[in-house]
């Protein structure tokens, strides 16, 4: 027992040492140890005062000047820009969903025999391996970075993401209805249409809502490179060093994304009642927002 305990401790120490070396190498490769970013630290501190402009309420209580945020939201028409962002995400999801369903079905071994099913799985894997941002750049020859190319990019990305989820979901469908329809002499198209797809309706809607969440965040990210919506406004304010307006836009983005996520989660919880569906509180949605935005951009 002592020997096993010693081996376990040495293994844990070696693992921690390996992680430390990997962290040091990663920071060094990222240029973290250079002094350049330290030189700009005073400027960052000054910018924080613009991100969160102070104001005395009732001449006693110091807090952020929320009025300046609200004033910019009205002047910049952020509601309309949010509508463009939401429209891009919705259109991309709806356009990609039918092909995702088709590829998801054809990628299942119950429908397409091995190894042909891996042809469709491979296509979905290739699509998923390319971020939505890169798909937007691929569609640039169609007319530059516009809401149209952003919609096509999200539609393409939806095929890979939603299709792969549906392929895995098809592995879990009940064999009873399928065998019952097969026993009547039905062909494969009838088995798929009446034995498999009806069992996929709820999971399809639930996963489509989940993909819509990601697409809203991706639509914001695509807007940053000029594809329209709130991302464009955010980029303009950042480039002109209007940090107060930039923070107002970020807060509006957070509100839009969290609203969509809450609607999506409640819908999925209703459709998949009894399943272990992730339920996040408003606090978790807000705190985890930066990570989800990063995942949507670079997934």
UniProtKB/TrEMBL annotation:
UniProt keyword terms in alphabetical order: Cell membrane, Membrane, Transmembrane, Transmembrane helix, Transport
Residues passing through the membrane, by range: 82-106, 118-138, 191-212, 219-236, 242-263
Location of this chain's protein in the cell: Cell membrane
Location of the ABC transmembrane type-1 domain: 82-264
Entries under SUPFAM superfamilies matching the protein: MetI-like
Highest taxon above the source species: Archaea
Major localization listed first in the record, in broad terms: membrane
GO MF terms, alphabetically ordered: ABC-type phosphonate transporter activity
Membrane topology of the entry: Multi-pass membrane protein
Pfam families given in the database record: BPD_transp_1 (PF00528)
Cellular component GO terms held in the UniProt record: plasma membrane
CDD domains tied to this protein: TM_PBP2
Family to which the UniProt record says this protein belongs: Belongs to the binding-protein-dependent transport system permease family.
Protein name, as recorded: Phosphate/phosphonate ABC transporter permease
Natural source organism: Halorubrum lipolyticum DSM 21995
């Amino acid at each position: 027992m002592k020997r096993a305990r010693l081996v376990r401790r040495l293994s844990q120490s070696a693992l921690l040492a390996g992680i430390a070396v990997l962290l040091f190498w990663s920071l060094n490769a990222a240029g973290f140890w250079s002094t350049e970013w330290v030189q700009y630290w005073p400027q960052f501190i000054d910018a924080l005062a613009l991100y969160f402009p102070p104001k005395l309420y009732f001449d006693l209580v110091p807090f952020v000047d929320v009025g300046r945020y609200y004033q910019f939201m009205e002047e910049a028409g952020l509601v309309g820009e949010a509508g463009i962002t939401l429209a891009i995400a919705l259109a991309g999801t709806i356009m990609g969903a039918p092909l995702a369903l088709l590829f998801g079905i054809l990628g299942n071994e119950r429908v397409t025999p091995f190894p042909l099913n891996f042809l469709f799985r491979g296509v979905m894997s290739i699509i998923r391996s390319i971020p939505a941002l890169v798909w937007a750049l691929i569609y640039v020859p169609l007319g530059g970075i516009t809401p149209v190319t952003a919609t096509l990019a999200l539609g393409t990305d939806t095929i890979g993401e939603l299709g792969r989820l549906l392929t895995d979901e098809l592995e879990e469908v009940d064999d009873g209805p399928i065998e019952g329809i097969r026993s009547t002499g039905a062909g494969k198209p009838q088995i798929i249409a009446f034995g498999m797809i009806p069992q996929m309706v709820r999971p399809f809607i639930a996963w489509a809502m989940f993909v819509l969440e990601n697409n809203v965040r991706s639509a914001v990210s695509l807007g940053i490179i000029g594809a329209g919506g709130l991302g464009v406004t955010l980029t303009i304010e950042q480039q002109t060093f209007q940090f107060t307006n930039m923070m107002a836009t970020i807060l509006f983005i957070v509100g839009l994304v969290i609203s969509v996520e809450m609607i999506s989660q409640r819908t999925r919880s209703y459709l998949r009642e009894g399943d272990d569906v992730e339920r996040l509180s408003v606090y978790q949605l807000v705190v985890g927002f930066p990570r989800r935005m990063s995942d949507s951009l670079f997934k």
